[in-house]
From TrEMBL:
GO terms for biological process: regulation of glutamine family amino acid metabolic process. Residues 1-493 are annotated as: Adenylyl removase. It catalyses: [glutamine synthetase]-O(4)-(5'-adenylyl)-L-tyrosine + phosphate = [glutamine synthetase]-L-tyrosine + ADP; [glutamine synthetase]-L-tyrosine + ATP = [glutamine synthetase]-O(4)-(5'-adenylyl)-L-tyrosine + diphosphate. The gene is glnE. It comes from Nocardioides marinus. The keyword Magnesium applies. Its cofactor is Mg(2+). GO terms for molecular function: [glutamate-ammonia-ligase] adenylyltransferase activity; [glutamine synthetase]-adenylyl-L-tyrosine phosphorylase activity; ATP binding; ligase activity; magnesium ion binding. Keywords: ATP-binding, Ligase, Magnesium, Multifunctional enzyme, Nucleotide-binding, Nucleotidyltransferase, Transferase. This is Bifunctional glutamine synthetase adenylyltransferase/adenylyl-removing enzyme.
Length: 997
């Protein structure tokens, strides 16, 4: 071309070509005819690709046609044809390749009726059957072409029809529902032609079985993608007089061959896989079944999700009468599935499977399965159909958009919401079609490279700022789908109990109860009463609650106990009353509201804390890491100092403790705080509580006794799990009280003072109140309950020197002097170290005594009726087994291995491993089991609201515990199985190491 030509490189760039150099050369190859087509090329999805493929097609057509100018002349003479062909070439590399292999098919797009007429399904079927040499009007068409020719012929004819459809779709904007329906008809015709080839392969025996192909999923719903697996179920019956066994074999052969005909790769490529995994028993079940066999399975064994899948069942090939009989048989079962006992669990499992199929690297670009994606719409529509379709046959449509229209028309969805959802779903489906059309590949991931996004944007009509405009629109529709997904289920529930203005869909209370039951609420009537309380009226609070509750109700429903979540939310909302920041925080800070819903629907313990401390709502949006003992002690001191009497001061200390218990519990529930940090956090919190309370009580006792100075130094020694930094939510604080009279003090005065302080501290911390009491247990002191509550340091020294038994030395392994006078704490530690960490270890007789005590504990301490396999503390392989094993290693070897001189179980276990006292694998197994059982023990308390060492039998409580431990929904039995497996193997290690058996 000359510089004077209209197609300068600058012009090409302005017209949308990305590579003007190459485009300039291609236009030059086409001459003036190419220049005339530029304005149409500029409107295609990818002008560069369209131009490049046009040159290839021109060359291929020239080799086949006597007149090489025919294609270009036709393009110039017929603008409609030019728009159709160039739109296809610019959007689909795969169809461009097909045209270059079969250049005669460009004439298909010259049909003037193509833009306004959808081909009849029977015509598509006939064309595919004729392509393989089968008679379209025969009862059982049989292919006559040679097998390899038939396979190629199906593919060529399939793509010929697909080419015409793509041209209509791209150039004439036929609508995603029409395109999907035509793709479904094309798939049905392809299955029929594949069955004709299968009959030819089977031979004369093919007539022994009647075989129906029932489409499921998108093909069954008349909403297939350009590229998708075609889900089917095969139904057969023996032909009249045929042997049933032989008929089954023939039907299986026909189905197997049909699947291979569609999936095998030939010189003409492949079509799509035929997926029969929706059949009874899935891939493990027989490929074909009779009607009665299907009936027996669905009546006895089928899960709810299988009936949900049957919403879209449609006979498409083979014996259509048999296929219709199958659909008529299963349809009544579909519409009572919502009444099944496990409807909620199965529906939730279906949603879980959808989420689990999303690769993490694709989650944000998943058009189908991601948040705000196609599945959100389809799931919402299908669940509404199953809930309300029992009594309303007008909403029983298999196609998503048709069902959505019916639900809107019948009042289950508001008109504006129905239209908005239709628009968003149509946009997402169109985008899915355009993505797949490019290479005819099965994908639902929006690409992230600029070139692909630009092509997609232009194919969707965004000719300027194509990529940016596409992403903006996609983001808008995703948010809209997510919002409406929540609103479809939950907003009409509110309108059933509250006067909400506007044209909101108003469910009857009965319909609202049905929907709540379907969403997992065990007491729908009570839930409706809570909603009525929260939303009725015209106050600002009621208005905000109506805004909040659609999302909150969904988050409650995702938890193990939605009823508890909603009831807890009502109680907290009542407690907060008109507090101005409360509802505004929930409305404006989504993370706070979602965390709150999760906590309320999972944990009775945390809910009760929040009810007593509603200000904790603010904490949900902040850092939930446990605070240090020093920070907590200072806050407790400051809070106590502002109170006039001792009880008020200790209540102030306990209020800080209550708030921090909530912080730790929420961090645990949300998976943000490790089990080791939970134990450490609870122990630090107890340190601070005891330290602040001790200071308050000492001041009070001094004042009551007229003392200016304390007559004795005071310390509190942590014992047991408290001393091991391993407290759980329900643990008492095991302690020893020790004092040391100051020089010149009267020993009796000092002892009376120390006794009074200990008694008052224990009384004040155990008083009923708005927080869980802190039980201070001193039963591990010398002589137990019979001995004095408080002893001097010298008295402890005398007792341990003359009377101490091996179990007391073992108990002191976990002693940690943490509260009170620092020098006294140091001296107490120096006193007990030689006793608990003897230089030469313990004697053989003492080892036997430890084992005798352990055997007696195993026999006598397990509660009556408790299951030794699932008791978390005293069960086989439980916490006691592991801790006694570690403690025996410490008593025997800590004198020689300094690293063993620790009160913490896991640190001691690691030191024993490093010193070669326990096998590395055994140590790892004990550590893992200890952590798992400790987490479960904490979770039991969080769920039940009170401590327990037994795994509960209640299914909802087990589900909540499994949720806290990170198991997916429906995995509570797997959680128990894992627990039994870990404790069984841990018990075997205990046998080897502790019992040396």
């Amino acid at each position: 071309m000359t510089r004077e030509s209209r197609s300068t490189k600058g012009t090409l760039l302005r017209l949308g070509f990305s590579d003007p150099e190459r485009a300039f050369d291609h236009v030059g190859e086409l001459g003036e005819q190419g220049e005339e087509l530029l304005w149409i090329l500029a409107r295609t999805a990818d002008p560069d690709l369209a131009l490049q493929q046009l040159v290839r097609l021109r060359d291929a057509a020239a080799e086949q046609d006597a007149d090489p100018r025919a294609l270009l002349e036709e393009l110039l003479d017929d603008e409609g044809f030019a728009m159709r062909l160039l739109s296809v070439l610019g959007a689909s590399e795969a169809l461009g390749d097909h045209l270059c292999r079969h250049p005669d098919q460009w004439r298909e797009l010259t049909d003037p009726a193509l833009g306004c007429t959808r081909p009849a399904a029977y015509a598509v079927r006939a064309g595919l059957l004729e392509a393989v040499g089968a008679d379209p009007v025969a009862d059982e068409p049989v292919a006559t072409l040679a097998d390899h020719e038939a396979l190629d012929a199906i593919r060529v004819e399939y793509r010929r029809v697909l080419l015409r459809l793509a041209a209509r779709d791209l150039a004439h904007h036929v609508g995603v529902d029409d395109a999907a329906a035509e793709l479904s008809d094309l798939a049905a015709g392809t299955l029929e032609a594949a069955l004709a080839v299968a009959r030819q392969r089977v031979g004369e025996d093919a007539h022994l079985a009647r075989l129906a192909v029932v489409a499921m999923g998108k093909c069954g719903g008349h909403e297939l993608n350009y590229v998708s697996d075609v889900d089917v179920i095969f139904v057969y019956e023996p032909a009249e007089g045929a042997d049933p066994g032989r008929a089954n074999k023939v039907a299986t052969q026909l189905a197997s061959h049909l699947m291979r005909v569609c999936a095998d790769h030939t010189g003409e490529g492949d079509i799509w896989p035929v997926d029969a995994n929706l059949r009874p028993e899935g891939r493990n079940g027989p490929l074909v079944r009779t009607l009665e066999s299907h009936r027996g399975y669905y009546e006895r064994w089928a899960s709810t999700w299988e009936f949900q899948a049957l919403l879209k069942a449609r006979p498409v090939a083979g014996d259509l009468a048999l296929g219709r009989a199958y659909v008529e048989m299963v349809q009544p079962m579909v519409w009572v599935a919502a009444e099944r006992e496990r409807f909620v669990e199965d529906t939730q499992a279906m949603r879980r499977r959808v989420v689990e199929h999303i690769p993490s690297k694709e989650a944000e670009r998943q058009l189908k399965l991601g948040s705000g994606g196609l599945r959100d719409v389809e799931f919402a529509v299908q669940l509404l159909q199953m809930v309300h379709g029992r009594a309303d046959d007008q909403i029983r449509w298999p196609t998503t958009l048709s069902a959505l229209a019916a639900l809107t028309e019948r009042g289950y969805i508001g008109r504006e919401d129905g239209l908005a959802l239709h628009e968003s779903y149509s946009f997402l489906r169109t985008l899915e079609h355009r993505i797949q059309l490019h290479r005819l590949q099965r994908t639902h991931v929006v690409p992230d490279d600029e070139e692909a996004l630009r092509r997609l944007g232009r194919s969707m009509g965004f000719l300027k700022r194509s990529a940016e405009s596409l992403l903006d629109q996609w983001g808008r529709h995703r948010l809209e789908v997510r919002r409406l997904h929540q609103k479809l289920f939950y907003r009409p529930l509110l309108s059933a109990v509250a006067r909400i203005p506007g044209e909101e869909a108003r469910l009857s209370p009965e319909a609202a109860r049905d929907r709540l039951a379907a969403l997992g609420y065990a007491d729908p009537s009570a839930a409706l009463r809570h909603l009525e309380f929260l939303t009725t009226g015209v106050s600002r609070a009621a208005h905000i609650q109506r805004t909040l509750l659609p999302a909150m109700l969904e988050w409650f429903a995702e938890g193990p106990d939605p009823d508890a979540g909603l009831f807890g939310f009502r109680r907290i909302s009542e407690a907060m009353g008109s507090t101005p920041w409360y509802l505004a925080t929930l409305r404006d800070e989504g993370e706070v509201a979602q965390r709150m819903a999760h906590v309320l629907a999972t944990s009775r313990y945390a809910t009760e804390l929040l009810e007593r401390e509603p200000q904790g709502v603010r904490m949900l949006g902040r850092d939930l890491a446990p605070l240090s003992a020093e920070v907590l002690t200072e806050e407790m001191r400051a809070s106590a100092s502002r109170r006039d009497d001792v009880e008020a001061a200790v209540r102030a200390v306990r209020a800080v403790r209550r708030r921090e218990l909530f912080r730790i519990a929420v961090g645990d529930l949300l998976g943000l705080t490790d089990v080791g940090d939970v134990g450490a956090g609870l122990s630090r919190l107890t340190d601070a509580t005891l330290q602040a309370t001790l200071e308050v009580v000492e001041a009070s006792v001094r004042a009551a006794r007229g003392l200016e100075e304390a007559p004795t130094r005071y310390a509190i020694v942590a014992m047991g799990r408290y001393g091991g930094f391993e407290l759980s939510y329900g643990s008492d604080a095991d302690v020893l009280f020790v004092h040391d009279p100051v020089e010149g003090a009267d020993p009796q005065v000092a002892a009376q003072y120390a006794q009074a302080v200990a008694n008052e501290l224990r009384r004040l911390l155990s008083l009923p109140g708005g927080d869980p009491p802190l039980v201070v247990d001193a039963d591990l002191r010398p002589e137990g309950r019979q001995g004095p509550l408080v002893r001097t340091l010298d008295a402890y020294a005398a007792y341990y020197a003359g009377w101490s038994q091996v179990w007391e030395a073992q108990a002191l392994l976990r002693a940690d002097a943490v509260v009170g006078d620092e020098d006294l704490r140091r001296r107490f530690t120096e006193l007990i170290d030689p006793l608990r960490f003897p230089e030469d270890g313990i004697t053989t007789e003492q080892v036997l005594e430890v084992r005798r005590i352990k055997a007696r504990v195993d026999q006598e301490r397990l509660p009556r009726g408790a299951d030794p396999q699932t008791h978390l503390k005293l069960g086989r392989g439980g916490l006691a087994d592991i801790e006694w094993t570690v403690q025996l290693l410490q008593m025997r070897h800590a004198g020689q291995v300094p690293a063993l001189r620790t009160s913490r179980t896991l640190e001691a276990l690691a030191a024993a491993r490093d010193a070669g006292l326990i096998d590395e694998d055994d140590a790892a197994l004990l550590q893992q089991t200890w952590r798992r059982v400790s987490r479960m023990r904490n979770a039991v308390t969080l769920v039940r609201g009170k401590p327990s060492d037994q795994i509960p039998s209640d299914p909802r409580e087990r589900a909540a515990i499994a949720s806290i431990l990170g198991y997916p929904e429906g995995s509570s039995e797997a959680m128990v199985d894992d627990h039994l497996r870990h404790t069984r193997t841990a018990h075997a290690v205990v046998d080897r190491v502790f019992w040396e058996s």
